[in-house]
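Checklist before submission:
- one chain only
- standard amino acids only
- sequence pasted in full

Submission:
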Amino acid sequence: MSEAKPAAEVAQASTPAAKVELPTPEGTVDAAKLLEPGALPEMALGEASAPVTIVEYMSMTCPHCANFHNDTFDAIKTKYVDSGKVRFIVREFPFDPRAAAAFMLARCAPEGQYFPMISMLFKQQEQWAAAQNGRDALLQLSKLAGFTQESFEACLTNQKLLDDVNAVMQRGAKEFGVKSTPTFFVNGEHYSGDMSVDVMSALIDSKL
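Returned file contents:
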């Protein structure tokens, strides 16, 4: 004869794990158009053939973007990008000259160093984004990433690069309705705002 289980245990066993509520998309864009080349080479991680493509528009001085990259991004990269399920593309959407300068430096970093540079700048965001002299603060951080005074100056005075960074932003605003950062397009669906690992994982899982 089986023993009757205490009511609390029965209740516990039959309660499913709390389901993560999926965010509601704010609309959709043509995914093929979204992935057409822009003014700058695409900064992407993951397989081009991955079933889910995420495009993030971000600003380097945006605290919500820093939160996402400091708290969520690495877990998503390990779980989905490295396993071939997600291609993750980052696009520039600088809201101010300091954010544009940070993006330019990331673009000037040696090949393969864009994402590490972005990551470092987000981790140190409070040091340079709010500094009285943002240029000096960025120079100090850039030197840690291998820049010299000369390469730093050459990068930040590259007018074509600045124009191209701004062109990426203008295209995002005009063609895809980006108004705030971070904005994510998941297989063409538009989502605004920071996401936790759980929420973004649930969203990706819903597309797989």
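Reviewer check: Residues 6-16 have pLDDT under 50 and may be disordered.
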